[in-house]
Amino acid sequence: MSIDDEVPITTNSKLGGDNSVGLVTPQYFTFAEAPNEMALDSGARIGPITMAYETYGTLNAARSNAVLVFHALSGDAHVAGYHTPEDRKPGWWDLLIGPGKALDTDYLFVICANVLGGCKGSTGPSSENPRTGKPYGMQFPVITIGDMVQAQRFLIDHLGIDRLLSVIGGSMGGMQALEWVIRYPERTASVLAIATTGRQSAQGIAFDEVGRQAIMADPNWAGGNYYGQASPTAGLAIARMIAHITYLSDAQMQAKFGRRLQSRESLGYDFTAEFQVESYLKYQGDAFVRRFDANSYLYITKAIDYFDLEASKGSLIEAFSGIQSEFMVVSFTSDWLYPPYQGKALVRALQANGIPTTYLEVPSTYGHDAFLLPNERYAAAIHDFIMNIYQRVTKGEN
Amino acid sequence: MSIDDEVPITTNSKLGGDNSVGLVTPQYFTFAEAPNEMALDSGARIGPITMAYETYGTLNAARSNAVLVFHALSGDAHVAGYHTPEDRKPGWWDLLIGPGKALDTDYLFVICANVLGGCKGSTGPSSENPRTGKPYGMQFPVITIGDMVQAQRFLIDHLGIDRLLSVIGGSMGGMQALEWVIRYPERTASVLAIATTGRQSAQGIAFDEVGRQAIMADPNWAGGNYYGQASPTAGLAIARMIAHITYLSDAQMQAKFGRRLQSRESLGYDFTAEFQVESYLKYQGDAFVRRFDANSYLYITKAIDYFDLEASKGSLIEAFSGIQSEFMVVSFTSDWLYPPYQGKALVRALQANGIPTTYLEVPSTYGHDAFLLPNERYAAAIHDFIMNIYQRVTKGEN
Description:
The structure is a homodimer.
Chain A: E1 27-31, E2 38-39, E3 45-46, E4 49-56, E5 66-70, E6 97-98, E7 103-104, E8 109-113, E9 128-129, E10 134-135, H1 145-158, E11 166-170, H2 172-183, E12 190-194, H3 202-217, H4 233-247, H5 250-256, H6 276-291, H7 294-306, H8 309-313, H9 316-319, E13 326-332, H10 340-352, E14 357-362, H11 376-394
Parallel strand pairs in A: 5-8, 5-11, 6-7, 11-12, 12-13, 13-14
Antiparallel strand pairs in A: 1-4, 2-3, 4-8, 9-10
Helix pairs in contact in A: 1-2, 3-4, 3-7, 4-6
């Protein structure tokens, strides 16, 4: 997911205007304290765990209007609104979340938490290891999408919500949404899985692994013990650049950059970043290292690569057996990281279980990043799907 | 181009059997000695230039049966046969070159030279800079596909060949074939451009640039002055791994590796290369750094990125104007580095000039690497195209 320059910058004269959630304050919830550490899929235990999260809108009296949004690889809990009146950019999915928007906070209570393993307020490799008093680094246990989801469940328990209206996510967020409904089938009325897959492909693993190798090859990585000293920015920037290419599309890169030069009239015959696409990637890499922890990148990509609903349940059809929730699966035509054929495989397995499923394949040239970008058809489909669930779930509540 | 493991290993009991060219000896030609250095597209001059090359078959009396094969990014002059009876692997395109093969050495005289800028015997950044007596390193001038082709023309002059029967290449080799006929339209009867493009795409530049950044971020790169000391193997391996993903296809990676583990029964919950696809990439990276010079990788990818027939001539149609040669363009359905739409753009521009052009789109799941792999339809099409030209060109010779 590329947040840096893809989120349209609003003027923010009124904190995004009437359809903004306005100012929001990050919140924190800590659990799994000794001796009740949380058990992970690996068999390891970890605690305490802090989850940084934000909420938007108001939880209704029946606690039935809560929507849990999961972020993607490089995201965070700040999905909508502004932290300060001076913020130039809103949260990463502000486009879809707010009064009158696709996820309409006039009706919905929206929650988003930074994932376990992250570096945006939740416990991750840069957090203090209680056994040593120093940052975990590579002492942090390898986590899975299931572990991330389990940590989110502790948060939802804490918020006193028995059953979510919906779990929603794009990319790795979609993996978490799928994992949530499989682990806790009673605990959501619906699932909205966007630009995602039931299992990470070999090609996806390959790209992630090269990124990890780039980080670990950086001498500043120092086996993960770089906190308080120079960090592996060169390696992390390369990992980000590789990944960023997979978030765009051939057609979109051609349209956005083509072979245009950045600041020259003609070829420079040197090794500076002279093509616009080179300069753009360099910017993306440089911006990313200022806001993201390299070890978190290792752990989160590993969790993505481990994600495989087929292996954990025998088949995708088995994985969804017994589920009562309603689904919408969204793919984008030019997404080659999680292409439509992977979305369709989810849909076939859901339908084989008789689960009500809407499939939307959005025509787009924006590649994987399309899920973060303005698209009327996409926003309207999300709105209609969720409001339909909302009306059904809240019907009969006074 | 991935040579390491893609070339089928023959048993070599008879040096590849009756249809092998057998033992071949590398040859060398040096030219452009002071004060007659070769002028480059950048305006710089370079000399002396040595070209390492090999030939197969026999040049006929009329010198009319010569075929010039251009190699791709990581290739070399050793395109067919064996250097020693102990060699386990033949040259990189042995599949297509030999007696009775697609490029039939019973009729044809096949030439292949290592490109200018390379590290396989021809002059490149690892060669001695005559001004300093030390390896060029980054003092080597930035070169273009046109410069590579010009150096090859000196070799063809040296061999006393006025007009080639064909210029042939895949990937960057195809770029050279196209460039050759545009620069020297009188000097080839035909062009066979395989899995290639008339201009490097933004996405292609992006992948190359990340590879270059990985090399230059390796502290061992040392500004290119690493000769005689530790070389930037970590960075070069990462560059190779990135590129290697672009040579395969999503479908092929799924078929070849899927999510299979290399040597474990279950997930290891650590950061070793546990998936087969990770292990394979690591092998590819490690093997590559033993046979390739990192600076050559920088220079050759830069030449690829600079390649743009449209820019140099105004349009692709203009680029091919006045050309009399006959063309065959081959694309592979699953090649996403140089996809069929790029091959078709060449064909449209050629046909707009009334140039006799055959287009073959080969169904294949092997991605870009398909051009190096066995495929009957592909081999037969090459054979028929070339033998047709051969018969026409040599008709009337006694």
